[in-house]
Amino acid sequence: MATVEENQKYWQGYDWSRRGEEWSETWGGSDLQWNGAILPRIAPFLPCTSALEIACGHGRWSRHLRPYCRELTLVDLVDDAVNACRIRFAGDRGVRCFQNDGRSLQMAAPESLDFVFSFDSLVHCELDDLEAYLRELAQKLKRNGVAFLHHSNFAAIRQGNLIEAIKRYRQQTRVGLKEARE
Q: What does each C-alpha distance from 149 to 54, 105, 123, 134, 181 come to in angstroms?
C-alpha cells in the first residue's frame, strides 16, 4: 500500500480527464455499477440527513449519493479532486468539499453523520490510515449511523489484518459496522 504522501503525489498527478469513470468500464459505466452493485447494499441506510464520502475523487460516486442525503460532505486528500468537486457541485448548497490529511475527518462535528461512504478508494491506504479513519468514525457517526467502507484488496495489506482491526474497533466503540468480508 502507499503512504499518505505517496497517495497525494500519485493522485495529484493522475489524469482525471475521465473523472474516474475508467474504473467502472467493466461494469458498463458507473451508472450500472451504482445501480447494480452499490445501491442495493446501501439502500437500507438511505435516505439520510447527513452523509460524508471519504476519498471522493472527482465525484464519480458523489453524484449518485447526492440525491439520497440532505447534506453531503466530500473529503479527499488531493486539492485538485476537492476543487473538481466544488466545480461539479457548484450552486448546490447541500454539498461541502474539504481537503483532509488522509487520516482524519476534522470537518465533521462529533456525532453528526448518519452515513459515511467510501468505495474503491481506501484500497490505496495503509492499515494505520484505515485504523485512523475507524477511530474518527467512532466519534463522528450518530448513535445509529452507518459506515459503508469498501475495500477490494484485503490481501495486499502488508502491515496487518484489516478484519482484525475492524473487530478491535468495533469492540472498543459503539460503531455498528457490518461484518467485513473478503
A: 9, 15, 10, 10, 11
